[in-house]
Design a protein that fits this description.
The complex is a heterodimer of chains A (746) and B (155). With 746 residues, chain A is of the alpha+beta class. Chain A has 3 domains: 207 residues, Aldehyde oxidase/xanthine dehydrogenase, molybdopterin binding domain (Aldehyde Oxidoreductase, domain 4); 161 residues, Aldehyde oxidase/xanthine dehydrogenase, molybdopterin binding domain (Aldehyde Oxidoreductase, domain 4, 2-Layer Sandwich), CATH 3.30.365.10; 332 residues, Aldehyde Oxidoreductase, domain 4 (2-Layer Sandwich). Chain A is built from 18 helices and 32 strands. A 7-stranded mixed beta sheet of chain A has the order 13-14-11-21-18-19-20. Chain A has a 5-stranded mixed beta sheet with strand order 1-2-3-4-5. A 5-stranded mixed beta sheet of chain A has the order 16-24-23-22-17, sandwiched between helices. In chain B, β3 and β4 form a beta hairpin. With 155 residues, chain B is an alpha+beta fold. Helix content of chain B is 35%, strand content 14%. Classes of the chains: A alpha+beta (746), B alpha+beta (155). At the A-B interface, α5, α7 and α16 of A face α1, α2, α3, α4 and α5 of B.
């Protein structure tokens, strides 16, 4: 969509050179012509060459810890051919442009979700860099009276070897900025010539982070702004029946108290809950005011809901026939003819995102415009949220992005932005809304919970001939507008996942559990549940049929070939790439070694959103059922690694997230209320739970990168529980592991 | 009026004496490097030093620091920008992902190294209780060993 002809050069106020895209033309598909004269100093630009020959590169994506502020500029800098040390980065705001039929992107798509930043910008940002380089070369060539082909670039300079002359980019930038963008698409470097891509590169903002200078959303301070908190209904879809704010209004600093109306029980979530807002002159005053509120709640339609009732409902559903969402061959015949049938049920709980930075947002709604400063994964969603609240035209809503203290999918939803807009509009002033940790744990779009029933048929040789997965879950498309009932399953079951197209007779069924729990995207969404279930079940099949779990996987994954993959991360899936990773981690962990006593090893692998990962875990279980994780080996195939240091960080982080969640994390419900409230009862892993050794390995493949934010997570949980089984014979079919070993071994 | 020192500067606070030090630092002194994470002294994102000892600013009433010397993450580097060895170790080990908890982690790590100059992995597991939701623990461990080596060499 974003073609070379839409790139445009321009001058910065300081005489530097800018290159970017004039979006209106680019995205409405109109011919942008040479476009050079249209470049205002402020729109659409990624590259800025400064008079001192340093380069400032704009980053359009939100940084949530996945490393885009480092990896995105690396793509531009590589093809621009500048030294990485000369590069600084700047966060770009949301860029949307009004068109005849809605809105479109000004700087290309912006958002952090689905591990898409590197894949989505790989061609585009390299082209931005290469085009700028080409324009700089043509200015130099003209000055020297030589062909551009006689020039080369290196470290921010154009060089003509024949003449023995060179120009710094900054000497050429002013003139280059006035050139029309070349008609010819620039050529890219050969990968063998890369000096930045593929080199381990540290976090670009690290000095500011370790000195406390980095500004997150929560650090926003605008002169005269108010501080607000909200006491939300603790009951799912509960409402405020009445409230008494007389004590609250006596708290020094409290300036206003009012009701916030939430969505009706079946309505889409603009915000999560009804509640009472307290506005004050400081965060602490607002929190104290909230504490003094007396609220009577209408407990709403889900006051009987509990975790127990959820599982009862799921079990009841599985007794029936669900929505068949994939049906290959003849499963029933395959199971009837099978010489062995293996079956098992697995439970996956609701979990909370728990980013370290509690939700917050600055909004200033004025008569005809609004300003938003938000830690968000979806700045366009923030713009839509404020428009929905205020009725302001979106082109008059400015959205700035800060560094974000963790996303994990939570900040794909901008309910906290909508809340801040409601408050700002009501008080007619700028406000920073602050959630507490309790707010964040109790009001989330939780990872969906589900009960999975698995059944496999094997022939006499141990070959898997039939496979079925039947899932009763509360899907994340709940209350989402424009998702038909028959499409609800699609967020919970990716029907082309392994072992589709490998096991001939295969059926997948879905059942919807009714629940008032809000649900949403949690890092690697349904892959976390399905990798646990499928990779555990493969082990169970292997054990039931006297096969080795690693060998069975290698046989099923088969030879090097592409299978069709119609869901996110496609269009193809090559299971052989999982075999390659599995063999690697198995060797590193010494899979075949005999492990006496209650020591064990387990492996698992999974394909997530285009990337491939495998884990091997070695652990020991003591007589009381305590778990000691000696070693985790993680390997990833993300195509080519743009920033190996960042890839390793994501693989480490995904692995630890997988471990933390599998060991201890679960959100439960009683009488229509979330039970957990803070880190004392939602026990995110700490240093003490870390394995003694965590190894990460990158196995390159091909010539294109995939994303990395999510694929390091899903295969950890089953590798862990497979290792537990190998160590002590206890099969974990219900997450989290928590005290199940202690109970089983008591 | 509460008077104390923050990063070697005298400061005063005339509001509610029960206000946690965290919110005085953040809302009144604009020192936002100290982070709010849980409000119950559990996650450690708000770790500061009070008279040289690590403390959770979110559960510490400002009245309790009267006359004391508070150091925040902003106060670790020398005025000319020279980094504390632990900050440098964090850079060398490329620790942060989102970065939100790292100020508190660094303050906790300095406290650990003051007490145990050459900590084992077990010491680190026992003393480093701060949460990092991104899971940078392995790099934190590496950075602490690195800083330990630098600091011992330096003395």
């Amino acid at each position: 969509m974003l073609r070379r002809t839409f790139l445009v050069g321009g001058l910065t106020a300081s005489g530097g050179f800018l290159l970017g895209i004039p979006a209106v033309k680019a995205l409405t598909g109109e011919d942008a012509g040479n476009g050079a004269g249209e470049a205002g100093g402020k729109i659409g630009f990624f590259v800025e060459i400064n008079p001192d020959n340093t380069v400032t590169i704009g980053v359009a994506q939100p940084e949530i810890g996945q490393g885009v502020r480092t990896s995105m500029p690396m793509l531009v800098a590589e093809e621009l051919d500048v030294d990485w040390a000369s590069v600084s980065v700047r966060q770009m705001p949301l860029g949307i442009v009004k068109t005849a039929d809605g809105f479109t992107w000004k700087y290309g798509g912006q958002g952090a979700g689905g591990s898409t930043a590197v894949t989505g910008n790989w061609e585009f940002l390299r082209e931005v860099g290469a085009t700028a380089r080409q324009m700089l070369i043509s200015v130099a060539a003209a000055r020297w009276g030589v062909e551009p082909g006689a020039c080369r670039t290196e470290s921010g300079e154009v060089i003509c070897d024949a003449l023995g002359k060179r120009f710094r980019y900054s000497d050429l930038a002013t003139q280059a900025a006035k050139l029309p963008v070349p008609e010819q698409k620039p050529s890219f470097k050969e990968p063998s010539d890369y000096r930045i891509i593929g080199k381990p590169t540290g976090v670009v903002d690290i000095r500011d982070i370790v000195t406390g200078k980095t500004r997150f959303g929560i650090d926003t301070e605008v002169s005269g702004m108010r501080y607000a908190v909200i006491q939300r209904s603790p009951y799912l879809d509960g409402t405020v029946k009445s409230f008494n704010d007389s004590k609250t209004r006596k708290v020094p600093g409290v300036v206003d108290v009012f009701k916030i109306d939430g969505p009706g029980p079946d309505e889409p979530y603009l915000i999560l809950a009804s509640g009472v807002a307290v506005v004050a002159t400081s965060t602490w005053a607002a929190m104290q005011g909230r504490k003094a509120l007396e609220i009577e709640w209408d407990k709403g339609p889900h006051q009987q809901e509990s975790t127990e009732s959820f599982w009862r409902q799921a079990e009841k559903l599985l007794a029936d026939t669900g929505q068949v969402v994939r049906n290959d061959g003849d499963l029933d015949a395959a199971l009837k003819q099978a010489s062995k049938v293996v079956t098992a049920r697995y439970e996956v709980p609701f979990v909370n995102h728990a980013p370290m930075e509690p939700q917050n947002c600055f909004v200033h709604v004025e008569k005809d415009k609004a300003r938003v400063i938000a830690p968000t994964q979806s700045p366009s969603g923030a713009s839509r949220a404020v428009a929905a609240v205020t009725g302001l035209p979106r082109e008059h809503i400015e959205v700035e992005m800060t560094r974000v203290g963790g996303g994990f999918g939570r900040r794909l939803t901008n309910d906290y932005v909508a809340e801040a807009a409601m408050i700002s509009q009501r008080i007619g002033a700028a406000v920073k809304l602050q959630w507490s940790r309790e707010d964040d744990v109790k009001h989330d779009f939780y990872r969906p919970s589900g009960l999975h029933e698995m059944k496999a048929g094997l022939d006499a040789s141990g070959k898997v001939t039939g496979w079925t997965q039947r899932l009763a879950s509360a899907g994340k498309y709940y209350r989402r507008p424009n998702v038909a009932p028959e499409e609800q399953y699609a967020a919970e079951l990716y029907i082309d996942d392994f072992p589709a197209q490998i096991v001939e007779n295969l059926r997948i069924e879905w059942f919807e559990v009714q629940s008032g729990m809000p649900r949403g995207s949690w890092r690697a969404p349904a892959h976390t549940a399905n990798a646990f279930v499928v990779q555990s079940f493969i082990d169970e099949i292997a054990h039931a049929s006297g096969q080795d779990p690693l060998q069975l996987r290698l046989e099923l994954y088969g030879e090097n070939r592409d299978l069709e993959y119609g869901q996110h991360g496609g269009p193809v899936f090559n299971p052989w790439r999982l075999s390659r990773l599995l063999k690697h981690v198995a060797e590193r962990i010494d899979y075949k070694a005999r492990r006496p006593g209650r020591k064990g090893v387990g492996v698992a692998s999974h394909f997530t959103f285009g990337g491939y990962a495998a884990h091997a875990v070695e652990l020991e279980v003591d007589d009381e059922g305590s778990l000691n994780i000696n070693r985790i080996v993680a390997a990833v195939d993300c195509g080519i690694a743009v920033n190996p240091l960042g890839v390793e960080a994501q693989l480490e982080g995904g692995t630890i997230d997988g471990l933390s969640t599998a060991l201890n994390l679960e959100i439960t419900v009683e009488e229509g209320q979330v039970v957990q409230s803070n880190f004392h009862n939602y026990r995110v892993a700490r240093m003490a739970q870390m394995p003694a050794v965590l190894e990460t390995h990158i196995l390159p493949f091909g010539d294109k990168p995939t994303g990395m934010g999510e694929m390091g997570l899903p295969s950890l949980a089953p590798a862990l529980t497979n290792a537990i089984y190998n160590a002590c014979g206890v099969r974990i079919r219900k997450l989290p592991v928590r005290d199940q070993l202690k109970q089983a071994l008591a | 009026m509460i008077e104390f020192h923050v990063n070697n500067q005298p400061v005063s606070f005339s509001g509610d004496e029960d206000t946690p030090l965290l919110w005085v630092l953040r809302d009144h002194l604009s020192l936002t490097g100290t982070k709010f994470g849980c409000g119950i002294g559990s996650c450690g994102a708000c770790t500061v030093h009070i008279d040289g000892q690590a403390s959770k600013a979110c559960t510490r009433k400002v009245s309790s620091v009267t006359g004391k010397r508070v150091t925040t993450i902003e106060g670790l580097a020398t005025p000319d920008g020279g980094l504390h060895p632990v900050q440098q170790a964090w850079i060398d080990a490329d620790v942060p992902q989102c970065g939100y908890c790292q100020g508190g982690q660094i303050m906790a790590a300095i406290d650990l190294l003051n007490e145990i100059p050459e900590p084992s992995d077990a010491d680190i597991a026992r003393k480093m209780r701060n949460i990092c939701r991104c899971g940078t623990y392995v790099r934190i461990r590496k950075a602490i060993h690195r800083a330990s080596a630098t600091m011992r060499k330096g003395t």
